[in-house]
Amino acid sequence: MIENLSPKQSFAFIQQNPTAVLIDVRTKIEHHFVGHPFNAIHIAWKEAPSWLENLEFVNEVNKIVNDKQCPVLLLCRSGQRSLAAASRLENAGYAHLINIDEGFEGDLDANKQRGNLGGWRYHHLPWKQS
Asked: Is the model's pLDDT at 119 over the cut of 90?
């Protein structure tokens, strides 16, 4: 089963579960230049310019998280790609999956800008840029 948690709930979960793994499924450019939570492991779900699914996604996660009972949190820009990635991991046998439902930047506002309605950064949770 995939659980959906807000960024604040996800951060609290990570603090209470030090073995939990946070995977950022955004593109390399998003991860490095837009920013990412501290200790987030980058494994892209899709990558530009093709935007095709990363067929090695599960294998790459297996290299980092070999215990399928370990909690895995997934983060993207707004919570959609991470949900698709979580579904793929669920099909691969991972048992404790958490989708961060607002993502890193949150939804678009009326001006078509992100970061004003929700997301990891909006809630002032720890993050950095490369």
From this structure: yes
Task: Encode pLDDT of 61-107 as tens digits.
Answer: 999 999 999 999 999 998 899 999 999 999 999 999 999 999 999 99
Secondary structure (H, E, C), 69-127: CCCEEEECCCCCHHHHHHHHHHHCCCCCEEEECCCCCCCCCCCCCCCCCCCCCCCCCCE
* Token reading at 94: 């991972």
The answer to whether 61 and 93 have CB atoms below 8 angstroms apart is no
State the fold for domain 2-34+47-128. Oxidized Rhodanese; domain 1 (3.40.250)
Task: Return the structure tokens found at 52.
Answer: 């095709």
The dihedral formed by the CA atoms of 106, 64, 30 and 92, expressed in degrees to the nearest 10: -60
**pTM for this predicted structure:** 0.95
Q: Report the distance separating Cα 91 and Cα 68, nearest Å.
A: 11
